[in-house]
Amino acid sequence: MAIERYDALEQLQRIRQQLDELSRRFSSQEALGEWVPPVDILDEGDRYRILVDVAGVKNDDLELQEQGQTITLAGVRHPLEGRYIRQERPLGLFRRTLSLPEPIVPNKAQASLKGGVLELVLLKARKPARKGKK
User: How many Å apart are CA 12 and CA 63, to the nearest integer?
Assistant: First the structure.
C-alpha cells in the first residue's frame, strides 16, 4: 500500500489562486474561457500609467485599441515546448477592457514590455480652455 503525501498548504494555495482568478474574471466582466492578467492603473497628473502582468506573452502577440476613455488590451500566451509536469499559468487568449476617468490622446500610447510586465503610458486629453464671459 503506497502512502500519498498530502500537502494541505499547497492545496490551499492552489484554491486561493483559483478563487483570485475567478474574482478577477467576474469583477472585470470578461468572457469565461479567457485568462485575465492583473492590472494596476496609476494617475500621474497629465497621464495614466498602466502595468499589466503578462509573463510569457511576446510583444508581437499583444494588441492595444484606444477609444475615448476606454482601452482594450488583447493578447495570447502560447504553450511552451515539452510535456508539462505542472501547469498553473493560464494559456490562450486574453482581453481586458479598461475605462479611464478621463479621455486620452489617441494614438500616442507608449508601451514597453520588461520582465513580464507590460507598461503603458497614456497621455490625458486636454480639455479646451473655456473662454470667460466679459
Answer: 35
Q: How many CB atoms lie within 10 A of CB 48?
A: 21
pTM: 0.71
pLDDT digits (tens, 9 = 90+) for 44-66: 999 999 999 999 999 999 999 99
Q: Distance between CA atoms of 1 and 7, rounded to whole angstroms? A: 19
Query: What is the rounded CA–CA span in Å between residue 7 and residue 12?
Result: 9
Strands 39-43, 62-67: pairing kind: unpaired
A 10 A CB-CB count for 37 gives 22
Coil, strand or helix: which one is 48? strand
Contact indicator for 96, 30 with CB cutoff of 8 Å: yes
